[in-house]
Amino acid sequence: MLNLHKDHKNLVLLAFSVFVVLSIGVAILPAYQMQEYQPIPGQKDLTVSERKGLEIYISEGCVACHTQQVRNIEMDKTWGERPSLASDYYYSKQRMDVWRQSPSLLGSERTGPDLTNIGNRQPSDQWHLLHLYNPRLVVEASIMPQYSWLFEKIDTLYLADDAVTLARGITKMEGREVLVATQDALHLVAYLKSLQQFSFENATPSDFIPALPKEQGDNASVIPANKTKGASLYQNNCAACHQSNGRGVKGAFPPLAGSLIVNAKNPETLIKIVLMGYDARAEYGVMPEFADKLTDEEIKAILDHERTNWGNRAPEVPVATITHLRDSISKLSQ
Amino acid sequence: MNVYHLLSFQIKVLNSENWLSSPGVIGTFILAFIVLFLGIFILIKRLNGYVDLLKKNTKNLAEEEFQRRLINLDEKQVDAILNQRKQGFKGEEKQTALLTKTVKNSGFIKKIIDPKNPLFDEKTKSTITIKISNELKEIIVWYLGAAVFWLVFGTLVGQYIGMKFIWPEMDSISWLSFGRLRPVHTNTVFWGWASLAMIGLGHYVVARTSNREIFSYKRSKIAFWLLNLSVVLGNLFLMAGVNNGGGEYREYIWPIMFLFAIGLLITFFNFYKTVATRKISEIYISNWFILASLIWTIVLTVIGYFPDYQNGLGETVIQGYYMHQGVGMWFMTFTLGLVYYFLPSTLNKPIYSYSLGVLAFWTQMLFYTLIGTHHFVFSPLPWWLQTVAIVFSAGMFIPVFAGSTNFLMTMRGSWNHISKSYVLPFFLVGVVFYFVGSVQGSFQAFRYTNYLWHFTDFNVAHSHMTMYGIITFLMWGCMYAILPKITGNEPSQNLVGSHFWLAFIGLIAYMVSLMAGGTLKGLSWIEGNPFIESVILMKNYWVWRAVGGSLMFISHLIFGYNFYLMVRKKNEMLLPLSDDSVLEKQNLHTQSN
Fold first, then answer.
1. Which residues of B touch A103 (CB under 8 A)?
2. Which of A308-312, A320-324, B294-298, B444-448 is modeled with the greatest confidence?
3. Interface confidence (ipTM) of the complex
4. Which domain holds residue B77?
């Protein structure tokens, strides 16, 4: 009938049409379907600056190493409070211009961390700028490229009033020179800070699929587990600025090793700073508040870790103090 | 509901303690061992042949011994030898008689083994020169020459960015930063190296199996310039920071990919017209694969770049579809077409089963098309789409089994040729990787293996296993098989041998280090360790990857030189009845002994 072995026309036509039909079914129709998703009520569009930042994010090829999807599996819990939804991408995944299509933000490699929620994890401008200028200034083991072309060396005499500069000591500037973030750098940071997973109250988000069966009744290893828990919580929440050796970053983030506040017998100030954040010293970046992000037990684990490492010697923090302080803070704010 | 239970059951077993016993992981281990076994097999075959040679020949070929014997010969012995030679010449006059009679001492030297250089065993030379038109030869050399250039350039870039994992501060020039160079590497080896090599070899296969000249060489040249232009421009734009949106293999902006698509369209019509005017009534199976892959890839490019359905996650659906089809419908399909011609022709026997080839063709189309979303398992894409992708990834076993069985059965009975030929090892590695790489890819689509390996460096290992282990090795096999025959120049066998072993060992080092490192990375994530630990633990594996990559790159330089040796113009070539025909006779003669 078709005589495919001898009729080249039929052969090519058949291969062509079956492929087109399959492609419509498996790609084009689902793509149209996915396009119909609406944004979550209350979700914000990108500002002009954030959108410019997104374009830089794409043109520098950040997607080669950073994903932006929280999968519905246990290990991705670190990257967001809930699995990503199609609506999350409503504003960010629009066609960029005539030449360039909608950005491929989901990514396929996680050589660096997922960025779905980086704006919440890392709200400090100074941190982002230093990190872009040279990632190893703030994360010692990082292998991220340095984006030094997003910064300019300028003589302090000609500095504009609104220029955003990097700390001179740590960036090894000599004479009167100082590093100034270009508009591009500021756009990119604006975009990165805008990456915050939108949380909504009234919907029950889908659950994460667990990786480990829940272990119960295994009390024997609680104490050593607590210690390592403190270390890993510290690593996840604090080390980006204060560094895993507790020494901080000169001129950007204060050291915890040998710090009077950390070593104080009475841990109240320390707990308050963790719960409420801190922005009292101009020479350092802003410390975000952790009251909503960490439980009392987690804060205890982190503080105990800080108070017993890097030469620090201070007694353990009782959970009761943290609970008490948290209560009084929330009363104050009411 | 039932489906839900099935899924949740599958998921409950997800647990990092029993990860070793997951079927996908076990399967992958077995596959890795197949590759190691293959390496050992080829090595032992070679060594065996070499040891045999030594046993037979060291005694009477030791130089001094030989000289002593020559000096001590008495007149009678000299006469006897002269007599023998005379008979040898007589034999040449009456070739038919000689073919039936096996004379051990014909008086001619058949094979010279240099006892001072025992490293490489001499391989059979390519004996037949095939007469093809100068235009066809020219086009093939053009395409393959450009392909070789892009291979060297593309892997140089790859090597450079691989080193950046170890020394991230090698440079801070925007044009050379990792994010911009990574797509330069992938796009160059895709659209530059593999595509041009395939189309170049495709010209030969289409013309040969249709018994016709290519429809229009002028069009071939136009396509040649369009394809190359798109790679040059595309790379410049990428390095300047202009890309389409970061989706893998879709980084060139549409005006550039448009040039490429036009090049493909011209090539398609050129090949189609040639096949349409073929002098043989049957369409050889290679042409099925070649024509289909061209038409599929044109459709694919149009779908991939058409903007109407690409906002929001629509783009992600298309991305999964596009990046997988780019590999499956273009590179894999076209290359299979080439192998269906070059493997049997190198072995000088027909393909094992023609109908198995036809089965592989249709299942390739049905199954490959549907599996793109397996790059986005656990993502917010619809669950049904992910499930379809996973199910049909398993379905890919059918075309892969059909194809690799067909090739291996064609090789069966000719295993000894492997140690005698410098072309066959490339084919053998390519075919075994076709099996191993594809099956491993299917395993990786399963939910547990995906849980463990997705987003890790394991993906990079997989893509090199396939694009390098399969496509590139098969391209080399085809090129070494055909170029000496159409140009009459053979490369030095030592160099081909070093090319093969450096590339093969390099690939193994590359693959094993990233597979091991990727697995540890996935386990570290499952354990919930801080992310930076997974970066630190990869350091050594990245060093080994760079070592493997360097070996591969060096082998490409050698290959480039070999290519030059094969295509350079020699003066004798211009004479119609020159040394060549004499050589051919001599070869025939020695063969018959």
1. 245-246, 315
2. B294-298
3. 0.82
4. 63-108
